[in-house]
Write a structure and sequence with these properties.
about 170 residues; mainly beta; 5-stranded mixed beta sheet; 3-stranded antiparallel beta sheet; DUF4232 domain-containing protein
C-alpha cells in the first residue's frame, strides 16, 4: 500500500508540472537581393555596378567582399582570378578602399564594383566570354545567378578586380 501511495504521488507530481516555455521565434532573416547595373565599357576597360538591397524587415550586417563566380552560356564555371581591389587591372580611385562594416537597413542598397579588361594578349589562347555571374553577398552565403547585359568579355586575361561593399551617397 505504501508503494502505491508513493507511486501515485510521483505520477501526480510529474503530471502537474507546467510545460517548459516555448522558445522565442527566430529573428526574421534579412532578404538580400543582388541586381546589376549596366556594364560600362570604355577603351577595353569594363566596369559593372553590383547592387545588394535588403528587401527584408530586419537590418543586415555587411562587411567585406561579395563571392563571385563567372559562368559560361551553359552555366558552367569559367576559370578566372577575381582579386580584391583593382587586382592590377587598372588604377581607379576608391576601388582599393578596404571593407568597412555596414548596417544595411531594410530598403537600403550597398554597391560593389567589378572591373576587368577585354584584352587579347596571347595568340595561342582563345578569348573567354562569360554569360552569367553567380554572386553571394559574402563567402558561405547563397549564390544568386544574374545575367549582365552584354556578358563578361574577358579576352584571354581572365583577371578581374572586385571592390568591397560600400554605401554611395547622392
Amino acid at each position: 500500500m505504501r508503494h502505491l501511495i508513493i507511486l501515485t504521488t510521483l505520477l501526480l507530481t510529474a503530471c502537474g508540472s507546467p510545460p517548459p516555455p516555448a522558445p522565442p521565434p527566430p529573428a526574421p532573416a534579412p532578404k538580400l537581393v543582388i541586381q546589376l547595373g549596366a556594364v560600362d565599357a570604355a577603351m577595353g576597360l569594363r566596369s559593372l555596378d553590383i547592387q545588394l538591397t535588403n528587401q527584408g524587415t530586419a537590418p543586415a550586417q555587411i562587411n567585406g567582399y561579395a563571392d563571385i563566380r563567372i559562368l559560361d552560356h551553359n552555366r558552367q564555371p569559367i576559370d578566372a582570378h577575381i582579386g580584391h581591389g583593382t587586382a592590377g587591372v587598372a588604377t581607379v580611385e576608391g576601388f582599393d578602399a578596404p571593407p568597412q562594416p555596414i548596417t544595411l537597413e531594410p530598403g537600403h542598397t550597398v554597391h560593389a564594383g567589378l572591373l576587368w579588361r577585354n584584352l587579347v594578349t596571347q595568340t595561342d589562347r582563345k578569348a573567354t566570354q562569360g554569360a552569367y555571374l553567380d554572386i553571394a553577398p559574402a563567402p558561405g552565403q547563397a549564390f544568386q545567378t544574374v545575367e549582365p547585359d552584354g556578358g563578361i568579355d574577358l579576352g584571354n586575361t581572365t583577371t578581374l578586380g572586385l571592390s568591397a561593399w560600400k554605401t554611395i551617397t547622392p
